[in-house]
Amino acid sequence: MAPPEAAAAMTRCGSCAAFGKLARERGLGRHLHHPQPASRLLRRRPVLLLSRGRSIGYYATEQITRDELTGLMAGDGELEQLSHELEAMGGAAADAAQVLGEEVQEPGIPRRPAPGERAAMTVRVGVIGTGMMGGDHIRRISQVLSGGAVTAVSDADSGRAAQVAAGLPGARVHPAGQELITDSAVDAVVVTSWGPAHEQYVLAAIAAGKPVFCEKPLATTAEACQRIVAAEQAAGRRLVQVGFMRRYDAGYRALKAAVAAGEIGPPLLMHCVHRNAAVPPYGFTTEMMISDSAVHEIDLVRWLFGEEVAAVRVLKPRRSSRGAAGLHDPLLVVLETAGGILVDVEVFVNATYGYDIRGEIVGEHGTVALADGGRTVLKHGGRRGDAVPADWRERFGAAFDTELQDWLTSVAAGRCTGPGSWDGLAATVIAQACHQALHSGHRTEVALPARPEFYARPGGPA
To answer: CB–CB of 333/436 below 8 Å?
Structure first.
């Protein structure tokens, strides 16, 4: 029985919720699922246990006790994340997720909506920064996703903010981001302004007790990120999600699932390619190739392997003539994890032919790589070829949708489940170490502080 069918077989009898509650009371929980067949005719058939949508074994119902099952559930997750993962599987599994959410719901917290259902609470969102990224998120929240409405906008270009607000019924325009954050008609904040302004807006949202989604970087320096981390801890609850959307991409999630299942054995190496067609001919620096581009791979490495990056190197190949004066393009960034995995990242921001993202993990027993995303292949006139995405919006549009929907749903539920302040801090610290290696030409160790207990549970989708 394949995992989706097994998940769909879970009934409304509450057995899964009971197991989950018991596991959570014990401080356990590994996103395991106990689907019990609905029909009495199937009561004697084996029960399939799922871990992150994958089968981990069969047990006859009379051969495993509740204590034994919960003993298998040791890990670092929460039952709420299991509900989210079942939703993503769709179909009857999504219905099971709704039942699961209802049965383990904490008092006073609204439940997650079922797929296609409007959230009981419409989150009123204020967006700071209405440029390309901010405008895309506004379109996404207003036209694509459920459970959210943009009620206020702010931008350094007041004319652009007014133009955007004109297309949003009832939306207010604020001359400053700080005013937007304190607006009583705003429940949560999206920060898509330029990077140096992120810190002040995130800190203001934390002070106002409002959830905030901040596009990367969380802040431009490690010191600024640490101030955000300290403020969030002082507030007593997680309020910040950072826009590392590749964690929500179906291809990368499949890579992570394959590694977690041990299908390729212990991971040894990872090869990454990050190519843009072009970047602006002015204002884009070599350092930004790391802090604006390679930072996505930096976060992915931590998330995929569950290890921190311990040291970095940056190599400079022959410079492309396509780049602006002073821009050393391409670069090769090498990341070493604490467990010894080596990751090489080719960053080429003037590749001219399109937006090309690749990833392959090499393990002891095999490899797993990103596919081409289902693009068509044309064969004609003795040639064969397929289209290359023009930019990040085309390649990761679905991941952005999933990311923002998850954030809206979590905000409505009074929770914060995505990559958070600690992940933003870690990425910035590693990027700064890469900057040092870029200029020194030497291997540079990463000086990441110890993770506070407050952030002991890693954020983000499993």
So the answer is: no
Interacting residues of 179 by C-beta distance below 8 A, sequence separation 6+: 154
User: Which of 235 and 95 is assigned the larger pLDDT?
Assistant: 235
Query: What is residue 456's predicted lDDT score, i.e. its pLDDT?
Result: 80
Helix (H, G, I), strand (E, B) or coil at 30: coil
* b/e sequence 173-212, b meaning 16+ C-beta within 10 Å: bbeebebbbebeebbbbbbbbebebbbbbbbbbbebebbb
CATH hierarchy code of domain 257-395+420-453: 3.30.360.10
How far, in whole angstroms, is CA 74 from its chain's centroid? Answer: 23
**Angstrom distance (rounded) from CA 96 to CA 90:** 10
**What number is the average pLDDT over the span 388-393?**
80
* DSSP-derived pairing of the beta strands 188-191 and 123-128: parallel
Q: At residue 331, does pLDDT exceed 60? A: yes
Burial degree of 337 (CB within 10 A; 0-12, 13-18, 19+): buried
Beta strands in 97-248 (DSSP E): 123-128, 148-154, 172-174, 188-191, 212-214, 240-242
Q: Where does 193-308 show beta strands of DSSP type E?
A: 212-214, 240-242, 267-275
* Cα distances (angstroms) measured from residue 455 to each of 72, 76, 208, 221, 426: 24, 11, 21, 20, 12
Give the start-to-end residue ranges of the domains of the chain.
Answer: 3-103, 123-245, 257-395+420-453
What kind and span of H or E run contains 226? helix 222-235
Strand duo 331-337 + 342-348: pairing: antiparallel
- Vertex 237 angle, CA 235 and 240, to 5°: 95
Q: Considering only CA atoms, which of 396, 422, 423, 418 is closest in space to residue 407?
A: 418
Q: How confident is the model at residue 251 (pLDDT cuts 50, 70, 90)?
A: very high
Return phi, psi of residue 397, to 5°. -55, -45
Distances in Å between the alpha carbon of 432 and those of 241, 272, 406, 426? Answer: 21, 20, 29, 10
Q: Which long-range contacts (CB under 8 A, 24 or more apart) does 155-160 make?
A: 155/128, 155/129, 155/130, 155/131, 155/193, 156/193, 157/130, 160/130, 160/131
CATH for 123-245 is 3.40.50.720
**Phi, psi of 268, deg, nearest 5:** -115, -45
Helices (H) and strands (E) in the chain, counts: 15, 18
Distance CA 177, CA 172 (A): 12
Q: Do domains 123-245 and 257-395+420-453 have the same CATH topology?
A: no
Write the CB contacts of 105 (distance below 8 Å, at least 6 apart in sequence).
Answer: 111
Q: Where are the alpha helices (DSSP H) in 261-391?
A: 286-288, 295-305
pLDDT tens digits for range 337-387:
999 999 999 999 999 999 999 999 999 999 999 987 556 666 667 877 777
On the question of a cis peptide bond just before residue 461, with omega within 30 degrees of 0, the verdict is no
Which SS3 state, helix, strand or coil, does residue 333 take? strand
